Amino acid sequence: MDASSFFLIVFLVSLGLTLASFVLGFAGHTFPGLHAFGHGAAHGVHLGVHAPVGVHGGAHIPTATNGGVHVSANGVHAAPHVGGHVAGAEEGISPFNMASLLAFFTWFGGAGYILTAYFGLLTIVAAAGATVAGLIGGGIVFVVLARVLMPNQTPYLDSADYELIGTVGHLSVAIRPGGTGELIYLKAGTRRVASARSDDDTSIERGAEVVVVREERGTAYVRTFEELMEAPAEAGR
Predict the structure, then answer these.
(1) Chain centroid to CA 171: how far?
(2) Over the stretch 65-98, which tens digit does the pLDDT of each residue have?
(3) pTM across the whole model
(4) 6 Cβ neighbours under 8 A, 6+ residues apart
(5) I need a labelling partner for 231 at 20 to 30 A (CA). Which of 3, 10, 75, 179 fits?
(6) Under a CB-based contact definition with an 8 Å cutoff, are residues 188 and 179 in contact?
(7) How far apart are CA 52 and CA 29, in angstroms?
């Protein structure tokens, strides 16, 4: 195989993969090289789950955070609002993403084929020129992705989708005094599971409806819903 044939094959394969990636992208698949990244915004975030109850009055349960869990006739909330929209750290796109690499090899193969087939340059000279062309092509695609396409695809993630404090769920595994059980809860329409301990080191039976009042190292500390509902009643006496 001569040099021009090699460059032509590289060009055709890379071009075919590039066209296929665009077709898949328009069909709704993730475009190669595009990685979503979040960013912060100065918006307040409401934490917790609204759960209507038939109790008048209210009580504030302190937690290890700056806020707390507020129990009232309107339900259970994480109080107060927390400043800052937490959406995950920004992740810049890598220069070696799939789209940029395909552009590099496409320009590399095309330039190499032209330099060898039409200008008759030596293979080593043509390879050097093709490499420069490939870097230019890959660089252009990278700049377009990083400066134009990526910012327009940035999702705004709500920290309430990941905040446990104020969440209402039920125990799939009972909590023994000083022990650990398993909490099942819903967040952002997804069923999730977390390790759970009793906030006051008492036992809580399996299937009990509980509220997360604090979180430490990935473990949810909970109290029964009934226990939190009794607090407003006792405070009103």
Answers:
(1) 26
(2) 444 454 444 444 444 443 333 333 345 678 899 9
(3) 0.43
(4) 112
(5) 179
(6) no
(7) 41
